[in-house]
Amino acid sequence: MSENKIIKSSRYFRVNKRDIQDKTAQSQPIIISDSKGNYIKRAITTEDFLNIKFITKKGQKVQQAIDWAEKELPSICHQHKNITFYIWLGTCNLTELNRTTRYISLVNQNDSNVRYLRRKFIELKELITKIKPNSKIIFLEIPPYSIQRWNRSQGHKNPDIFSDDDQTLQNQLYLLNTFIQEINQSTEKSPKFDLDIRKTSKRKGGTDEYYNFNLYRTDGVHPNSLLAKLWMRRIATKILHQCYR
């Protein structure tokens, strides 16, 4: 998409109080996320009436979320009769940050880490279900991001060497998001974030498809303010239908 299309889509997905005038909240929405959650939380406008609770931690990996849930989730669940959990994790498991250089790299070149995440997502879902048996659990798909752009933003002298890693990362994300659709038992429960940055260009003999990371911040990982607003509204629209009747 272009910036103009992002703006138009944000208007389309805008939610207001009148959207729930004849509805009753059936479940408390809780988003558990890494830093992605912070960016969309800052983009909230009219969505604040949905009373979304954010539990976010920068750099959070799935095992950290599991450890947190074991200790802290029982008290949170006690406060609400019904809860719908939105799990938006996985980014920080596919790539790792070198805290000295500030560069990121793939954890694995093969799909072993995707298989690991499958097991951990199932483990997290089973844990939440054990703590809150009547809860709903929805995994949000992981948006594409760029190792090359992140490392360029951190001053790497030759960031183009990461272009192959970017392609490997996109392949891993495709596999992981396919599994997320399976564990959700639906392709409709999570927004398709990748569609918002997918772009095509025509050439002789066909078209090329690529991701427009110009819609991200310069780090190539986090959405800019326009895209964050759209993603917040996409999630809010899901919450409106999934938590209100």
What can you see in these coordinates?
This is SGNH hydrolase-type esterase domain-containing protein. InterPro entries: SGNH_hydro_sf (IPR036514). It comes from Mytilus galloprovincialis. The protein is of the alpha/beta class and 245 residues long. Helix content is 43%, strand content 16%. It has one domain: Rossmann fold. The chain has a 4-stranded parallel beta sheet, sandwiched between helices. A two-stranded antiparallel ribbon has the order 4-5. The chain has a two-stranded antiparallel ribbon with strand order 7-8. The two termini are 32 Å apart.
CATH topology: Rossmann fold
Helix and strand content put the structural class at alpha/beta
- Helix and strand string, N-terminal first? HEHEHEHEEHEHHEEH
Count of separate DSSP helical elements: 8
Helix content: 40-55%
Biggest sheet: strand arrangement: 2-1-3-6
**What is the rounded Rg?**
18 Å
- The number of strands is 8
The shape is globular
Q: What is the CATH architecture term?
A: 3-Layer(aba) Sandwich
Kindly, what is the distance between the CA atoms of the first and last residues, rounded to a whole number of angstroms? 32 Å
Largest sheet: 4 strands, parallel
CATH superfamily: SGNH hydrolase
What is the total number of structural domains? 1
Please indicate the percent range of residues in DSSP E strands (runs of 2 or more).
15-25%
Low-pLDDT segments = none
The first-level CATH class is given as Alpha Beta
Tell me, rounded to a whole number, the average pLDDT.
94
